[in-house]
Specification:
binds magnesium ion, alpha/beta, about 270 residues, binds adenosine-5'-diphosphate, 12 helices, Chromosome partitioning protein, 7 strands, Rossmann fold, single chain, P-loop_NTPase, about 40% helix, AAA_dom, DNA_Partitioning_ATPase
Length: about 270
């Protein structure tokens, strides 16, 4: 396998879209796996109480397991909660358990409630022996305090957009939120990447969405488009990314291509 270039400093990328089912988790897990396969050290932070990213990466996330909840609501260090994914030696996950479902409310009354993830991530990145090249944060489908914590902890936002009707609905709200975060909480945050997912070349609609997104975001939108693929949707039930589940499937190849584009893009 071709080895991908690695960034000189850790890239922290939040995968966000307040719509559910658009491919946030699928994109997080498969990009992370593809980059790890390419030789990078990658941490996935599962910030969705559903814990789908933890499931897909094959890591334990029963209620008893130490998790991202203990990190942001308690003051547990990330080092105590991270688990190595069985997929690749360089792939790690900070899992989400069911406890995270209450975090949105518990956070409200905590000091520095918007900065808790950033503080924990900074402390962890400063102490690890081998630096991470990428940290991906998989967001829940809302713009609440968990997603705000992700925006404050990150430098980059990656928005997956489903090639379907209503794909662009809600996008301006998301962009407004990013601007608010930039102004008040994290001036370094930038929308770096848009990835079109669940593309079906047989529909005119999918092509219209692709054209429209490229027109609005020519610099951010990756050339690679992720096709709709059964193999992609099957992989999580085996606790695997599609990269290891079916490495030569079109879904795997497209996520590897997207990962390569991201790796070759440098960020200022
Ligand atoms: P989100 O995290 O935004 O809620 P998911 O990544 O969980 O979205 O995807 C929603 C559903 O669509 C899941 O069942 C997933 O397996 C499926 N899915 C995601 N991407 C694809 C794809 N490219 N082809 C087919 N199914 C997909
Ligand atoms: Mg998800």
């Amino acid at each position: 396998d071709a080895v991908l270039p690695v960034p000189p400093a850790t890239r922290i990328i939040t995968v966000a879209n307040q719509k559910g089912g658009v491919g946030k988790t699928t994109t997080t897990v498969n990009l992370a796996a593809a980059l790890a396969q390419g030789g990078a050290r990658v941490l996935v932070i599962d910030l969705d109480p559903q814990g789908n990213a933890s499931t897909a990466l094959g890591v334990e996330h029963r209620a008893e397991v130490e998790s991202v909840y203990d990190v942001i609501v308690g003051d547990a260090p990330i080092r105590d909660a991270v688990q190595q994914s069985p997929e690749f030696p360089g792939l790690w996950c900070l899992p989400a358990t069911i406890h995270l479902a209450g975090a949105e409310i518990e956070l409200v009354s905590l000091v520095a409630r918007e900065q808790r993830l950033r503080t924990a991530v900074e402390a962890y990145l400063a102490e690890v022996d081998e630096p991470y090249h990428y940290v991906f944060i998989d967001c829940p489908p809302s713009l609440g305090l968990l997603t705000i914590n992700a925006f404050v902890a990150a430098r980059e936002v990656l928005i997956p957009i489903q090639c379907e009707y209503y794909a662009l609905e809600g996008l301006s709200q998301l962009l407004d939120n990013i601007k608010l975060i930039q102004r008040h909480l994290n001036p370094k945050l930038a929308l770096s990447t848009i990835l079109l997912t669940m593309y079906d070349s047989r529909t005119n609609l999918a092509n219209q969405v692709v054209d429209e997104v490229r027109e609005h975001f020519p610099a951010e939108t990756l050339t690679t488009v992720i096709p709709r693929s059964v193999r992609i949707s099957e992989a999580p039930s085996y606790g695997q990314s599609v990269i290891t589940y079916d490495g030569n499937s079109p879904g795997s190849l497209s996520y590897r291509e997207a990962a390569s584009e991201i790796a070759h893009r440098s960020v200022a």
